[in-house]
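User: Can you write out an input/output pair for a complex, sequences first and structure second?

Assistant: Here is one pair. Inputs:
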Amino acid sequence: ENREAMLNPRSNRLTEALEEANTLFDGVCGAREAALDAQFLVLASSIGKEKANELHSEMSAFDSTAYAEDVLTFMGINRTEMEETDDSEDVPGGFLPKDAWLKMGEEALKYFKRAPTFHYMMGSFESEPPVPKQRIERQKKASRGKAERAMPAQLKKMEESHQEATEKEVERILGILQTHFENDPDIPISFFDFVIDPNSFARTVENLFHVSFLIRDGLARIKLDEDGLPIIEPTKPSGAGEEDSRAGARNQVIINLDQREWK
Amino acid sequence: QVSELVQFLLVKDQKKIPIKRAEMLKNVIGEYKDAYSEIVNMAGRTLQEVFGLQLVEIDSKRHMYILINNLPRAEGKYLCRNKEKEKMGLLLVILSFIFMKGNSVKDSEGENGEGLGQLSAHPSLTPILRKQHCTFGDVQKLVTGEFVRQKYLETTPIPMTDPPEFKYQWGPRAEKEISKKDVLNSVAKITGKSPTFWSSQYSEAQATP
């Protein structure tokens, strides 16, 4: 408790306490008291060490306050005249310039054998991203282009096939019609006989569809015979065809054909 | 393996926290555990010959290492970031303070003005450190945290004190990186006195290599 008092170099308190402890120890028989005594010894030695320390530094007294002031001067403090009325601190007034500690640091670095900190100059992460980015972009563009090209190509193919199919069919039917007519030019071909497929309704519709192309293009003609039933014949490719086609275009026949009738 | 270790050490040294042997074994050496000492020695040689840095073991029990600069001091300005420079300035002041006061400074409260609630609040240091948080942030944290972790300072509790008090001394890194002679010379320069003015400090400085 009386640590500070003991620390006082002028006091012999420590020595007195030690002597007292010595005498007390003679009377000790229990372990607990011995432990207390040991504790006291530790305390005493620590105080003793401090005392010795202070003795040492008193020989070459280091005035830390003066040192502090000198440090401030070294750092280039601007001392201002300050009234001590408001400030309870009795420290000299003034403010340090911005580079105060840098100046101190310059001085310090002269003495420290400090290994300069190692940093990568270019930074290991900076150069990578741009390169892959470009590559990715280019790849994307390339693949997109291909896809687009693939698409129109596909579409074209489909459309072509569609058209081809229809055209082919139409031509085929025209061919059949012409062959028939060539064989027997005087016997008219019944329209219904021509288009109806006894086995397939869908086929019949398709045939009608194809025949309508022929008529539209003026390659075939539908006329009504004596019975009022339509007959179909190929047109002759001649100047007279123009009139006919005009006339033909005027006649619109709606054929109502459903599955029941077909049967 | 050796060059990997060299790189590892150089990068690890950035924070200036001592490097443990366990870290070296785990991250770099791995399976080559048996060749550990050879690899470390060769790495040390490379560091010295290529970079002029010395690999020093500061704790032989716990096997901790630091890198210090082994090149003779060059003329001209030392290339360093400003933040680093300022911290080194503060460190020099603190190390000087501790040395001149007999190698150990307490942070306890005392009657005769020697007491200090914190080292940075020491009445003698206050004029220097007050209002310096713009430069250093939390000064006490810097002193008891960073400087201690980097082994520039060592703080030990004083036994039997309640509330616990601490004393501050030079840490092993400080002892390797700076000499007492240089510190005394800097104090002399700043105060405008001769180093021999403080006889006991002077003789101690002369005695320490």
